[in-house]
Amino acid sequence: MKNLSFFDEKKSEPRCVAQKYKLLLVKEQSYLYNNQLKNVNSAVEFLKKHLLLHCEPEEVFTVICLDLQLNVTAVFEVARGTINTALVSTHEIFKRVLLTNCNSIIIAHNHPGGSERPSMDDINTTKRIKEAAQLLDIKLNDHIIITENAYFSFAEAGIL
Prior knowledge:
The protein has 160 residues and is α+β, with helices and mostly antiparallel strands. The chain has a single domain (24-157), classed as 3-Layer(aba) Sandwich (Cytidine Deaminase, domain 2), CATH 3.40.140.10. Helices cover 26% and strands 22% of the residues. It has four helices and six strands; from the N terminus they run E-H-E-E-H-E-H-E-E-H. Strands 1-3-2-4-5-6 form a six-stranded mixed beta sheet, sandwiched between helices. Helix 3 links the parallel strand 4 (104-110) and strand 5 (139-146). It is globular.
């Protein structure tokens, strides 16, 4: 069995064992870049088709970054929790959002339990994220809660 070393013996540099922050930057040549999220339906379709968010067994909180034309420029997972909760840090969201130089964001998470209705924690988290986004001149376009068979849009409900 070969000994695994944290350092590459040829270069004497640390190997990247795991990324601390997963941030998928979407370039123009990527199949994800052609996704223009102009409305809730296109965002829900993107979440289901490309991220399979509705299939996750625990809550997963995701951020989609958009350019001025509402093209997807970056996608990243902020938190992964239990069947009914995920701890979301506003600091962690915007540390990554600022790296993408995006104009607006859509935040989304799933409810594996089946109900698409937002909890008070969901509503309070959305308010916190919206306030932080406004301070940074980034528009929060929507917060979408997705289940296997339904979704809830804060923008459509008029509570964003």
